[in-house]
């Protein structure tokens, strides 16, 4: 969608980022959020004092927001250092993405964006690198945007099989295979739906002969809450409860597109949490794939159950060098951190630091939260090995930390990080490079950056 | 307070005896002496019980010799990893039925011996002034613990400042435990005045003075109650002696809502009784000032507490009201139950103007969101100053009063923009509720070094811990005392 050029093509609207400085006679300073319509064909956009790549992504997004509907846009990155120029282009691409497949008559929007640079050939490889990550994010966004009646567990798996043409191996474990593996958590959660649950495994072999990095994703195609049914208000947003799995799949696509040398595997737990005659119940005791028993307290705390089985499978089958799971897991993390940062939990300080740094680098920001002794103690059950969550009632419950303590029981001694991305899968604020109320693809670029920064050093492996 | 004494290692003439034996160690010192007196009976008993000195392993013998009514042998695990304070707390419960107890700490260092005393004293706290019919046999009998230590002089000296801090802790626990019909703002201020006998300067302002100072935010909260608000300032001039204007003081600020109904935005009935401890931040600051004065800390410190009651009275402030704070900034009150930050806003501004502090730490049971975020083991720590924040975290680890750093940032600050005033008092929705509260407070600190501890999850405990009985924890007193001791004295 974005092309590198030296000069704008005729008819393209020029968008020029302007750093803060002395005011233009119109009063335009170049501050963030300012836009000046210089002529019908040229607009200036405030770039403030942007210096980092993530800040330039913000400027790129602001340019698109200020552009209006013309079919052709040209973003002026001439004179910018390469990482800023790339950031400008990435931000523009992220902001320009739309999901209008389901509109009979899509509103007009830019069809082609040009990124003007002094030396297009010189920037080509850096831009190709950025495009790989963009492809991953956009793949994740498409999946998240799809409504629950279209993206069923079956359809989700089918779309993931499309990644085979990218050089990714795709394996699907259906109900029979899951029964054989004893995936009691995933089978219970998906048991209420007319479409059975499944695990999809994506493998990128890479070049290094080392254990893979494993991504584990929560893929709830729709979450009614089950028997512990959710309130009607806002339930439509639950079509996005598979955003963790989508981000993992997007990251795999990014790794394949840029031919990462690092082997990686994604284990995606895909199900629909439906309310039906065959739904699992509060009070049920499940035997998980690891053999542990879990007392169900709230059928709407289903994400941790499907992740537990997927984490166990990842740990035992692939013995990965590290495992990261992504999930829209708890409302509690939104209360804790709002819509500006996702929650980060880990059992390994070095991995935790690397994950947080990767998030900062791509503007997908995290904040560490604790797993205290008490968070684990609260999960002690009278009837099973573990309670799934802490009964709420009228009390405040630190559910995000309780959920992390639950998941930790299924990763053994592997270096592990858990990203609770609830609240970040859809843009609720203007400080993200995605239009408000649209999917962000949060996590795909972060995982891609993490692999590049932390797992691709040939001297390390 | 439990009487803690230190003495030369010798077998007691009466009462209970606690022997501490490390993992794999053979009885030596007092234990060996007792074993001899028992003609090898102690060794036989320990062997029969399979005692290996593992942590928390315990063997009890009743009246093993004439002078000892109860003998408790406690395993300490490897001596290197001994948490003496916790041990003191745990052993209290097991000997509380005896009037006197001797702990044989002859193998331990003087500071470990003192820490055992502190642990036992902290655990022995009880708030029973409203129990009128409790039978004598149901009350703990233990009055005195003697710790037999080789270096008992040094142990006693090490215990003296600990005792002063424990007394501060108890003052806080008393204040937080008091029911709200007893401890209203006026009564709270009166109790603060009693601290002049420790050498603190105590200054109390009433509504007239506060009105003059322009405390519109605090007074707005208070106006729904029949009980008048108070602002109490407690000064400890341990460094300058109050004579010369030497260093800028360190400053602690507490939210003291003696009862919080929520006001017009009234809370649901279930659990509302807990809101008597919505003054725990002020309680902690008061106990901390008593601790600093009690141990004659070499620091100039000032503690300020804003005391109000949040009631839905006929003159109560309404959602939609706009108030002008002492700083001149205007606040749209969206939710009258987000009142703590309104109180803090004025007190913080006053602290800066009047005392020009070196740094400020405020404590407040501010948000339910912090419990959802962190649970009950960590308080939320927000700060604009890296050095202060890391010192607080370290002091928390050292005293077992843990904090967890939480983020601040422009994106969160935007959430409290108001259409009619400079800011509104809640961030719109539950998202990031404790962060937006901290952003609100930050708007009043004028860029000064500042930290905010949201203690809503840690001020009260629903179950016993080794050194903290169920109820008011006095979270923060020991952490902040430690902060001062480690970095700001001398």
UniProtKB/TrEMBL annotation, chain A:
CDD domains: Peptidase_M17. InterPro entries: Leucine_aapep/pepB (IPR011356), Peptidase_M17_C (IPR000819). Keywords: Aminopeptidase, Hydrolase, Manganese, Protease. Residues 139-447 form the Cytosol aminopeptidase domain. One of its GO terms (molecular function) is aminopeptidase activity. Belongs to the peptidase M17 family. This is Leucyl aminopeptidase family protein. It comes from Roseococcus pinisoli.
From TrEMBL, chain B:
Binds 2 manganese ions per subunit. The keyword Manganese applies. Signal peptide: none annotated. Mn(2+) 2 binds at residues 255, 260, 278, 339. GO terms for molecular function: aminopeptidase activity. InterPro entries: Leucine_aapep/pepB (IPR011356), Macro_dom-like (IPR043472), Peptidase_M17_C (IPR000819), Peptidase_M17_leu_NH2_pept (IPR023042), Peptidase_M17_N (IPR008283). Its EC number is 3.4.11.1, 3.4.11.10. Its main location: cytoplasm. Its cofactor is Mn(2+). It is an enzyme of class 3 (hydrolase). It is found in: Cytoplasm. Keywords: Aminopeptidase, Cytoplasm, Hydrolase, Manganese, Metal-binding, Protease. It catalyses: Release of an N-terminal amino acid, preferentially leucine, but not glutamic or aspartic acids; Release of an N-terminal amino acid, Xaa-|-Yaa-, in which Xaa is preferably Leu, but may be other amino acids including Pro although not Arg or Lys, and Yaa may be Pro. Amino acid amides and methyl esters are also readily hydrolyzed, but rates on arylamides are exceedingly low. The keyword Cytoplasm applies. The active site is at 267, 341. Mn(2+) 1 binds at residues 260, 337, 339. Residues 335-342 form the Cytosol aminopeptidase domain. Belongs to the peptidase M17 family. Presumably involved in the processing and regular turnover of intracellular proteins. Catalyzes the removal of unsubstituted N-terminal amino acids from various peptides. This is Probable cytosol aminopeptidase. It comes from Roseococcus pinisoli. The gene is pepA.
């Amino acid at each position: 969608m974005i092309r590198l050029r030296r000069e704008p093509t005729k008819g393209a609207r020029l968008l020029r980022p302007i750093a803060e400085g002395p005011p233009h006679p119109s009063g335009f300073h170049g501050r963030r959020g300012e836009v000046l319509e210089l002529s019908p064909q040229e607009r200036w956009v405030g770039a403030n004092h942007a210096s980092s790549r993530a800040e330039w992504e913000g400027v790129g997004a602001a340019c698109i927001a200020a552009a209006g509907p013309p079919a052709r846009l040209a973003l002026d990155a001439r004179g910018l250092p390469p990482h800023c120029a790339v950031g400008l282009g990435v931000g523009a691409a992220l902001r320009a993405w739309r999901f209008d497949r389901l509109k009979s008559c899509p509103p007009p929007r830019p069809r082609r964006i040009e990124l003007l640079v002094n030396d297009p050939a010189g920037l080509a490889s850096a831009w190709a690198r950025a495009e790989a990550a963009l492809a991953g994010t956009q793949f994740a966004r498409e999946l998240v945007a799809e409504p629950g009646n279209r993206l069923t567990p079956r359809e989700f798996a089918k779309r993931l099989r499309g990644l085979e043409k990218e050089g990714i191996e795709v394996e699907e474990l259906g109900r029979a295979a899951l029964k054989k593996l004893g995936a009691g958590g995933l089978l219970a959660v998906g048991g209420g739906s007319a479409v059975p649950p499944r695990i999809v495994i994506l493998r990128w072999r890479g070049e290094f002969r080392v254990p893979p990095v494993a991504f584990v994703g929560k893929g709830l195609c729709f979450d009614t809450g089950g028997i512990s049914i959710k309130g009607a208000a806002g339930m439509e947003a639950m079509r996005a409860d598979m955003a963790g799995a989508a981000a993992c799949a997007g990251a795999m696509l990014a790794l394949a597109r840029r031919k990462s040398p690092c082997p990686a595997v994604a284990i995606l737990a895909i199900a629909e949490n439906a309310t039906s005659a065959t739904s699992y119940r509060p009070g049920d005791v499940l035997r998980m794939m690891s053999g542990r028993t879990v007392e169900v307290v709230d059928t709407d705390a289903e994400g941790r159950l499907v992740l537990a089985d997927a984490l166990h499978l990842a740990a035992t089958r692939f013995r990965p060098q590290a495992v990261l799971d992504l999930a829209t897991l708890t409302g509690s993390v939104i209360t804790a951190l709002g819509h500006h940062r996702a929650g980060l939990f880990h059992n390994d300080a070095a991995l935790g630091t690397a994950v947080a740094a990767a998030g900062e680098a791509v503007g997908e920001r995290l904040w560490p939260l604790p797993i205290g002794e008490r968070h684990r103690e609260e999960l002690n059950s009278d009837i099973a090995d573990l309670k799934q969550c802490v009964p709420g009632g009228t009390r405040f419950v630190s559910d995000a930390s309780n959920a992390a303590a639950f998941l930790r029981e299924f990763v053994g001694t592997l270096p592990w990080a858990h990203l609770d991305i609830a609240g970040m899968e859809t843009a609720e604020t203007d400080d993200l490079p995605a239009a408000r109320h649209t999917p962000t693809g949060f996590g795909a670029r972060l995982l891609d950056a993490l692999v590049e920064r932390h797992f691709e050093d040939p001297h390390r492996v | 307070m439990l009487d803690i004494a230190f003495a030369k290692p010798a077998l007691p003439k009466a009462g209970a005896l606690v022997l501490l034996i490390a993992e794999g160690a053979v009885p030596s010192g007092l234990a060996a002496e007792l074993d001899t007196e028992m003609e090898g009976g102690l060794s036989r008993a320990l062997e029969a019980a399979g005692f290996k000195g593992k942590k928390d392993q315990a063997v009890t013998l009743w009246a093993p010799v004439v002078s000892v009514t109860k003998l408790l042998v406690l395993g300490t695990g490897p001596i290197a990893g001994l948490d003496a304070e916790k041990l003191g707390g745990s052993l209290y419960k097991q000997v509380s039925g005896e009037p006197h107890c001797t702990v044989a700490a002859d193998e331990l260092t003087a500071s470990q011996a003192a820490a055992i005393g502190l642990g036992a004293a902290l655990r022995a706290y009880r708030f029973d002034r409203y129990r009128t019919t409790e039978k004598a046999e149901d009350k703990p009998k233990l009055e005195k613990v003697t710790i037999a230590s080789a270096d008992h002089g040094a142990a006693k000296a090490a215990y003296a400042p600990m005792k002063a801090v424990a007394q501060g802790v108890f003052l806080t626990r008393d204040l937080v435990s008091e029911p709200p019909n007893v401890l209203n703002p006026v009564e709270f201020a009166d109790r603060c005045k009693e601290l002049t006998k420790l050498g603190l300067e105590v200054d109390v302002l009433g509504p007239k003075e506060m009105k003059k100072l322009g405390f519109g935010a605090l007074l707005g909260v208070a106006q729904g109650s029949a009980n008048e608000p108070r602002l109490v300032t407690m000064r400890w001039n341990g460094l300058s002696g109050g004579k010369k204007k030497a260093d800028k003081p360190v400053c602690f600020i507490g939210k003291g809502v003696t009862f919080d109904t929520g006001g017009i935005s009234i809370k649901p009935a279930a659990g509302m009784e807990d809101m008597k401890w919505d003054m725990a931040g002020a309680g902690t600051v008061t106990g901390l000032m008593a601790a600093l004065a009690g141990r004659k800390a070499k620091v100039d410190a000032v503690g300020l507490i804003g005391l109000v009651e949040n009631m839905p009275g006929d003159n109560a402030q309404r959602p939609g009201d706009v108030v002008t704070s002492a700083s001149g900034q205007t606040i749209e009150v969206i939710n009258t139950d987000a009142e703590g930050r309104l109180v803090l806003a004025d007190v913080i501004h006053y602290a800066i103007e009047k005392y020009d502090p070196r740094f400020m730490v405020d404590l407040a049971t501010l948000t339910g969101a912090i419990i959802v975020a962190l649970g009950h083991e960590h308080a939320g720590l927000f700060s604009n100053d890296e050095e202060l924040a890391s010192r607080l975290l370290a002091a928390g680890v050292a005293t077992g009063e843990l904090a967890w750093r939480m983020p601040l940032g422009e994106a969160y600050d935007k959430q409290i923009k108001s259409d009619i005033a400079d800011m509104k008092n809640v961030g719109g929705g539950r998202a990031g509720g404790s962060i937006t509260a901290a952003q609100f407070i930050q708007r009043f600190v004028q860029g000064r070094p500042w930290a905010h501890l949201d203690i809503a999850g840690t001020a009260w405990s629903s179950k016993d811990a080794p050194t903290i009985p169920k109820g008011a924890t006095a979270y923060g007193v020991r952490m902040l005392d430690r902060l001062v001791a480690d970095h700001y004295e001398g």
